[in-house]
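FAQ
Q: What does a multi-component entry look like?
A: The components come first, one per line:
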Amino acid sequence: MNTTMRLSILGLLFAALMGVLLLRLWTMQVTDAQAYEERSLQNQIRVVNTPAPRGDIRDAKGVLLAGTESALAAIVDLALVEDDEIMVLSHSLSAFLDESSADIMELLENPPPDLQVTVAESLTDYQATFLVEHREQFPGVNIIPQPVRVYPEGEVGAHVIGYIGRPDDEDLLRENVEGNSFVGKAGVERSYDDILLGTEGVISYRVDAKRKVLALDSEVAPTAGDSLILTIDSEAQRQFQESLQEGLEQARQLQMQERADALAQKSIPERLAEAREEAEEAAAQEAAAAAEALEDDAGDEGNESSATSPSVDDDDVAPAEPEEVEIDPAEVLASLYPGLPIDSNGVCEPIQRVTAPLGGDAVVSGVEPRFLRLESVAEGEDGELIATVSIGNVKEAVEVNDSFAGTLQVLAITEDSIIVYHRDAWCPVRAVGTLIDPNDGSVIAMGSYPAFDPTVFVDGLSDDQWAHLGTINAFQNFAIQGLYAPASTFKTVPYVLAMEESYYPVDRGLGDKELTDDSDDAEDAEPTILTSHTDEYSCSGEFKFELNDGTVQTKRDWKWPGGHGPLDLHGALQASCDLYFWDIALRLWEERSDDSGIDKENLLQEYAREFGFGTKTGIDLPFERDGLIPDRTWFTSEQAADSPRVRPDGPWVGGDLMDIAVGQGATLSTPLQLANAYAAMVNGGTLWEPYVVDQVVNADGEVVDDHAKTAIRKVEISPTTVRYLKEDLQQVVNNPERGTGTSAFATFGDNVELIGGKTGTGEVISARDAEDFEEVDNAWFVGVAPIDDPDYVIAVVVERGGSGGRVAAPIARQMLQYLINGPDAVTPLVPGQEAD
Amino acid sequence: MALDYSDSAPISIRHRDAPMRPDLVLVLSYIVLTAIGLLMIYSATAPGFEARGIDPTRELKEQAIFVVIGFVVFGVISAIDLTEIRGFVTPMYAISIGLLVLVFLVGDSGGGAQRWIDLGFLRFQPSEVAKITAILAIASLLASKEPPLKWMAVARTVMLVALPAGLIFLQPDLGTMLVLAFVGLVLLFTAGATARQLAFLGVAAIIVTVGVFQLNLIKEYQIDRLTAFADPGAHELTLSYNQVQSEIAIGSGGLVGKGLFEGTQTNLQFIPVQSSDFIFTAVGEQFGFIGAAVVIALFTLMIWRLLMISVNAGNRFAQLVTVGIAAMFVFHIFVNIGMTIRIMPVTGLPLPLMSSGGTSFVVMSAALGLAHSAWIRRPPLPGEMRRRT
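Then the predicted structure of the entire assembly, as tokens:
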């Protein structure tokens, strides 16, 4: 192969390479030219979204609860800022806006895709003017009017209204939502977000490769969202929230009073006994010393010492009668535990922030106030600070987020202090309530205290304030998210069952008689099945019954010792006799497998579920919870899953069914569910789907959607049952002898005879490691008015509040006074008598 | 055609037999490509300068200075007999190696690599110069060897390539290193290497490549560039951004282009370093397929001329030098244009004569000057009139 041939081969190779280039260019520039053309056009367009004003939220009377105002925002367009200017810009903005330059720097360095960074959301006129006049010092900063959410009524209706915030990943998948939009996070702001949101405007610019704007391409103005008209009456709502707040504060005061009493009862005699022991010890030592001295040099001192000892005893024995000591609880508390962190009103806080300085003490209140001491702070291997604290005699090393000493949790550790949260297991946590119209299921008022002002989600709060509001769960709507054992308020369910099925308890004739080993008495007393709702039943304080294996189980009525005496079904509801309803459940259990063909084991649960228990009501608010009506199926599956909600072993038993009959055990209901069930019972059986949004109105004021009341189902319930139930509910409030709510309504004034209701006191399954103290109760009251043709059903629960008749009923009383007798008729909150 | 393989009696300028006429096709394609290059540099840079309030002809003017220098260099070298140049091959080669070493000592770095030496009034890239000296050194070595080549000659050629290539690789400048390897192979092939020798070199190249990767001698960004080329979607806004944008620019040019100064991608500066490595995108977008085809045709014409010069060269040294230059041009053209249309990875090789950049233009001019010198001193072709002396 000669050189010329080799060169020819090279020539062919080179030509082939050029051919490849031409071929590829042909496919790109001729075959696929269109696709590239489109991409080059897209390249030059930059899209900036302009937020749409959110729709308003108004109450039933048109009062603005959430609106949109225009505020001037400072927005940095990073497309107009050179990279080397960013640092200087962040410093100038920092100085001008009085914010940390690091924060601003972080915003500027992590811009959204459209390069628009909001550095200030609402400028004052002065600030805006200054920025405009000094453009050259603030390159790329634009002053742009932005819609800002306002909540003129503050906390009123906050839990129904909800709040807005920046979209999360899921929100961003929705149409119309951009990274810089605000979307509803809770309440109707969330459930009606698509309606409120409106459509964002779009401005597109022609840009170069560095995304610098060259010219305006097109502009589409934003469309405002539609407005909502709520069923809420903001004035009633305001009154309700005030009553809830006052009621909770009063419950806390009562709780502190009880504790002070308990401490005083316990501590003074104990201290006296201690003082006596100390004195005796000192005397004994002295005597011993004297004896020694006596041995050394016999003298008269022996007589002296024997003379002093009895005199010490005499002094100490005298006042050791606790009943006779006059107790001023606050004084006792203060003298025993100086520095106890109760506020000036003597009110407890369910969650306290306690700060202990290095080497110093902080008092952590509880049943027995304890001292938290920060001994030292060291740095751990991973750079975390580790604090050594002592509480009582126990020393512990803790890190941030650790829990210790049962009720304490570390919030923060610095080099010279520690901040902990102390959870007080007995302090009333919150008061929750809901008020609905039993004629259509519309919600007139709903809320809980502690509440929040939705404005904080727009204006922001300090980290500490956020942490505090978060820890006390101020943002949750407990009226639909709180699950509580409905306790005695649930007794209307077995009541309706008894009336509808003519199914009454067995009077076992046990009375208050003790079951003895030779249980002749028990055998003698022939159990008789009650056959009418007017048959009387021995409502004693204690209920003993035999289990299958022959063991005897005892359940005690809330009124023990004592009991209620003989009562028929009506009296049993009015007095809230546990035994009567337990016995219905026990009879259901005993007859569960008879030949009647009716499944009696689940009959009670079926009645409960008919009235909506155990299922979401379907209200148009987010995060509603189901509640629970337990049965054997549920119990078995929970047990199989090792759930802490049930016993680890053993079958579903009659006792479980008896618990349900009085709304205890695993039974759980939301306040709204309970109110809705009562609404169905008193309106003749229609279970409405509750709602808070009445109408949707567009920007032109036209109603685009009007809520039609929706029935979940019609429960078959006879008018007789309804009539008796209403009478009995009225008696709960009006019967001076046995009505559990009568005392709370003593100050109601006119028209108290129009009021019906039912109290409830639910045992809280408190933390297992909680210190030993009296049981903690949730206080319930469900009210109905006017009783003949009800327009209002109100449910109130005070978490850890204590007795329903004492704590919850007065809150409902104030609200019903407001509704029936008008705003001026509301009388101050007075605790009722302790009753179930 | 009587070709003299004996490497004897160089034909001196005094004894030439053919008329000393320039190769008009070569010179014209050289001038036209240069002119197109200047126009493209202006169209690619002016909007950016204008936007910043800078003289829009700034880069054009800078390049024009080098164009003038390049033309002078072309003319001067055309006038020198390659045989005389051959006498200085060894010192030239040594100096270029020295310069490559010097880059590491005093060089300026830019874009992750150390490539430039700053002379105060200008910065130049010794690696560009090394391309020419390597061609000259290899051609000189192989010109004195008879085909078929001995293994020893192959080995010495590899050494001559490996020394500058290794230094350039360390800068690191993968593209220029590959140019040297390609040129070396083409020269060995032309000089008469056997199929077995070429196959051996191929295998050795693979082993070296694998070894380099294994020893992590390649910088991460070089690997990234190569992988980005394979999967541009994954790097749309980062590594292969250039390639994606340049592809859009060229593709959107269509058949006849968007017109001069009407290229949106070009005017809006979507393509970084467009005036240097990505100058072909300016052609593709503004003049479409037709413009791109014209430029490739001009380059093809030029390469055809270089091969013809080689075929007709008066001696083996001139023949090999010209082939080496042709190979260098082809490799640059294919890799550079291939890069802009995403059939080759981004290697940073400029488009000869058109890319903005002084050293490259002057060196390419010098290379063409060498080839032109060979043409002028070729033996007479059949039918050519002998000159009377």
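Q: Is there any commentary attached?
A: Sometimes. For this entry: The radius of gyration of chain B is 21 Å.
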